[in-house]
Design goal:
Layout (H helix, E strand, L loop, with lengths): L1 E11 L2 E11 L2 E6 L9 E4 L4 E4 L1 E6 L1 E2 L2 E2 L5 H12 L3 E8 L4 H15 L9 E4 L21 H10 L3 E6 L6 H10 L3 E4 L6 H10 L3 E2 L10 E3 L2 E3 L2 H7 L4 E5 L7 H11 L4 E4 L18 E4 L2 E4 L5 E3 L4 H11 L4 H7 L2 H6 L17 E4 L7 E6 L2 E5 L2
Parallel strand pairs: 1-4, 1-5, 6-9, 9-10, 10-11, 11-12, 12-13, 13-16, 16-17
Antiparallel strand pairs: 1-2, 2-3, 5-21, 7-8, 14-15, 18-19, 19-20, 21-22, 22-23
Helix pairs in contact: 3-4, 5-6
């Protein structure tokens, strides 16, 4: 059956259609029109002037709805994925913090099963660690952090096609072979929890590491070596023009002025927005999955307050933070939760923009300063409708 979203302000790759329609059949967009005339026989969804934009693609999220992807179970995955769908995440890469091999295997088994379900929002698994610099561990579990171990990562990448991204501190011994192995298996290597200097960032980039994990967090800025300045990891990533970045746009992990600065330097096409949300996101939970973590000031922290531990943000909050606090145009903020993540992960052929032939992943924000999320459609199925 046809569905027609009409009377909306539709964001297309060419810009806004002020009075547009999006026609959906089954799970695909079949037409976008600069016209709101109702189609005969179509189920009508009146946008009432709302902003109609592509659904959010979450690159980095640890859980939600009170459940953590580290649990590795189908139930935990479903609860967390559904919790974020309500807030505009129509595609998702579940994330594991530094974990043991058995934990990774359990999550991979669940992920691969669910990825193969019809119209699944799960596009792959993201491993955040354990190959990190101990000095930049942050909220990662320190007992599991180590340098890359080929006997671990090679069999995992060989066996599980669901591993689409793996984060690493490239200054560690054995990192360049790890990066190249990831690339060979279609897995995006990303720099994170690192103290890499410019030469190390450059070498990693040349080996295939083209993305930066929660940019500015768990990586140093320019520092002094005696009387001389050295570029930190942040400046090194900015200098490598082909590197993309992701920003936790909750207004807390990175001050909004820095979010705007990175957007101005890297641009829309190389800046993605993420939640890095923990289990407490999209829930009423007051205690974290990790007993070392507390919820305070609208964010997750280690209990000793030595480091931030993740966010409790949802996809819609990323857009509001970017527009209301960082002064980023709405169209660009929406592209940074959809088009840019799709481009980074190589799924722009079917996700990330509202175009004929693409998956019917569509969300709507109110046409006012509040930018409230009103509607979510995932693969043609209405998840939320408050129009």
């Amino acid at each position: 059956m046809l569905k027609q979203i009409h009377n909306g302000k539709v964001l297309t790759p060419q810009g806004w259609l002020e009075n547009g329609s999006v026609i959906v059949k089954d799970n695909k967009i079949v037409e976008i029109k600069n016209d709101s005339t109702p189609l005969e026989g179509a189920e009508l969804i009146d946008a009432k002037g709302a902003h109609v934009v592509p659904g959010g693609i979450e690159l980095h999220v640890h859980g939600g709805g009170g459940r953590d992807f580290m649990e590795g179970t189908e139930e935990a995955f479903r609860v967390a994925v559904d919790a974020h769908a309500w807030y505009g995440t129509t595609s998702i890469y579940p994330t594991l913090s530094s974990s043991t091999v058995p934990m990774i295997e359990a999550a991979c088994e669940t992920c691969e099963k669910m990825m193969n379900e019809p119209n699944s929002p799960i596009l792959g698994l993201h491993l955040e660690g354990p190959y990190f610099n101990m000095k930049m561990a942050g909220a990662q579990i320190p007992e599991w952090i180590k340098a890359p171990v080929a006997e671990e990562y090679e069999p995992l990448l060989e066996k599980y096609s669901c591993i689409k991204r793996w984060d690493n501190a490239p200054e560690l011994e054995g990192s360049l072979p790890f990066i190249k192995c990831c690339v060979e298996h279609g897995c995006l290597p990303s720099i994170g929890h690192t103290r890499a200097k410019y030469d190390e960032v450059k070498a990693a980039n040349e080996a295939g590491m083209t993305h930066a994990t929660h940019f500015y967090n768990a990586m140093p800025v320019v520092y002094k070596n005696r009387e001389f300045k050295e570029a930190g990891t942040v400046e090194s990533i900015l200098a490598e023009q082909n590197m993309t970045v992701e920003m936790i746009a909750d207004g807390i992990h990175v001050p909004p002025v820095m979010l705007r600065m990175v957007y101005q330097i890297k641009g829309v096409e190389k800046t993605a927005l993420i939640t890095d949300a923990l289990a407490g996101a999209a829930s009423n939970e007051t205690t974290a999955f990790d007993p070392r973590v507390i919820y305070e000031d609208g964010v997750c922290k280690l209990a000793d307050r030595s480091a931030l531990a993740g966010s409790i943000a949802t996809m819609d909050r990323l857009v509001r933070t970017s527009v209301q606090q960082a002064g980023i145009p709405l169209a660009d903020a929406c592209r940074m939760i959809s088009e840019t993540p799709a481009r980074i992960m190589g799924v722009l052929d079917r996700k990330g923009t509202l175009e004929t032939g693409k998956d019917a992943d569509i969300i709507m924000f109110s046409n006012d300063e509040e930018l409230n999320l009103l509607f979510v459609m995932q693969m043609g199925n209405v998840v939320r409708n408050e129009l």
